[in-house]
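Fold tokens
===========
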Amino acid sequence: MDFKRNIIITGGAGFIGSHVVRLFVNKYPDYRIINVDKLTYAGNLANLKDVEDKPNYVFVKADICDFDRILSLVRDYAVDGIIHLAAESHVDRSIKDPFTFARTNVMGTLSLLQAAKLVWEELPEKYDGKRFYHISTDEVYGALEMNRPEGIEPPFKTVASSEGHKAYGDDFFYETTKYNPHSPYSASKASSDHFVRAFHDTYGMPTIVTNCSNNYGPYQFPEKLIPLFINNIRNRKPLPVYGKGENVRDWLFVEDHARAIDLIFHEGKVAETYNIGGFNEWKNIDLIKVMIRTVDRILGNPEGSSLGLITYVTDRLGHDARYAIDSTKLQKELGWEPSLQFEEGIEKTVRWYLDNQEWMDNITSGEYEKYYEDMYKGR
């Protein structure tokens, strides 16, 4: 079959990546989607069982740091687009093991860029019709002051803004905000962002970078706050809250993020940066209370009966006080905005995890890691 486009999506078995793969496979049957994933602890092909037999879907188990392998894939599949999501992404893990984050997030990105450069520059058309799209994080911007702890009316709203939605400071992350990463994770992502932009400025590669806020939704590895807490409430386990729970984050439903990636890949301007956020700031403790009430209600328990599971723990090193992202550039230039209020998104998310307890139990038991180890042993 001849395909209109051949697109590598890295990290396509992970949380955000699996949603992007699913969207592209189903929406573009004339595109061949090559899912490249190393299948580390957070990668899980069970996330993509509904598309694994589609004729335009290919899975390749590979490490993005393996330059020769990546070079062969770009060349053999005649790849004309790369959507790069593969990354080590947990701040706590980066504090314990910064070397792994530098290797994957920096050298892995450089491996992809150099492979694409070598193959695309060999072609008669060079970079015409090509695109390298790098997905990054708002954490590269550092942290914002929480100088309005009582909350104020935010300067922007969308149809998805929650009723009574507040902002907890006067400033926001913009595409022009100076990078000021604080953790090994955000430092590694900042470095990878700079390499992507450098390949445009130096070689003329058509690149785009986006920086997103905290994602939530189905298929998220349960070391992250929302799936961890849903699972712990179900199993009556403690809910560990850093410090006083007053750190502020913007929350973005993962399917809305996937829609934005699709739009930007096809219509975004080369060499531009776009922020992708949910227009929703939440203090961690307020978010947790919404989650507790939602899980309790769906499980048939009195709403709030699990509040006693909240356990305050010592704050982590360098825990940034506030992230708040301004996505109005994407809204005004490409017409994107989130589709769900946070309360709607968390309802869908809670129901998905409670309805897919086998998926969660397999993840938390480590069965899927053993399966992949056995499946790919010696290959």
Remarks:
- The first strand starts at residue 5 and ends at 10.
- The domain at 1-142+179-212 is CATH 3.40.50.720 (Rossmann fold).
